[in-house]
Amino acid sequence: MKSKKERIGLKRVSEEVERALTRLGHAKLVGRSSPPRIQAPGGKNLQLHFKTRMPPHLFTGGKVEGEQGASILVVLLDVDTSSVVQTGPESAAKLNVVVLEGDFNEESDDDWTKEHFESHEVKEREGKRPLLTGDLQVTLKEGIGTLGDLTFTDNSSWIRSRKFRLGVKIAPGYCEDVHIREAKTEAFAVKDHRGELYKKHYPPALHDEVWRLDRIAKDGALHKKLVKAAIVTVEDFLRFLVRDPQKLRNILGSGMSNRMWENTVEHAKTCVLGGKVYVYFTDETHSTGAVFNNIYELRGLIADEQFLPLESLTHNQKISTDSLVKRAYEN
């Protein structure tokens, strides 16, 4: 799969993709239950909302990211329509990023006042550096914003709930005549970075180094064997597993027992693949091709410019696809 690979379909959701979707009329961007209604002056019911889910824990000194390393998106919603507010001064407001106590409003359908929200903001411990450092403001563009580089300097073990949340609120000087409700993320723990050095990831991410998988110790014998075979990331491991599992097993050798092998493979397969797709075409006309996912698993066939999912292929189509897959792997 070299020059004949073509990327099609979805890619990781980015701020630009979100903005494009809203222009196309995909109004309901909220994946969870509708937020509570807040009546603002002028008949507007507006509130901020985090689109990105947070992982169960983060580490001090590391970049604050969402699940699977995703950028953290926040949107301004019209509660009445569940659509993103793309026009007007509110859609270009500046937001302050704050840290909240982990047990703040655990019931997602609860409402709160600005004063209640701010009373649960967490500041640094006495004698410590600011708890959250980096880009502490984000500016909305057409109602959508992406949090910048942020880092926690202290763990969350000293808070009653032992967890934090991120929150965003309208910055002073913006939209002062309209009440826009603040937003909060899920609660997450922040641990000291020392544990990150050798920590396994559950689930692992495609871009994780391969030693993040169970049974593969960082800089250990198995790790070195994999790196020597150019298997550096979890994605590399999964691609090799799909194309030639026996060769991968042989690379690891007798130093990995069958039970260890099963554990490593099982852990690797929990990886979230995302939406990247590759196509291997048989000729320059691009009329027939095999469609693969991130790790080169066959997902379907393109025939006469139509995509046919794997499960819908006829017996004869599957036979022709098998030979196509072999050629793709050889290239």
Map the helices and strands:
Elements: E1 5-9, H1 15-23, E2 46-50, E3 57-59, E4 73-78, E5 83-84, E6 94-101, H2 114-119, E7 132-134, E8 137-139, E9 144-146, E10 150-152, E11 164-170, E12 180-181, E13 183-184, E14 189-191, H3 221-228, H4 234-243, H5 245-252, H6 258-268, E15 276-281, E16 288-292, E17 298-303, E18 306-309, H7 315-330
Describe the protein.
The protein has seven helices and 18 strands. The N and C termini lie close together (5 Å). The N terminus is likely disordered. It has a five-stranded antiparallel β-sheet, with helices on one face. Strands 2, 4, 5, 9 and 12 form a five-stranded mixed β-sheet that branches. It has a four-stranded antiparallel β-sheet with strand order 8-6-11-13, with no helix packed on it. The protein is an alpha+beta fold and 331 residues long. The protein folds into two domains: 165 residues, Immunoglobulin-like; 71 residues. Helix 4 packs across helix 5.
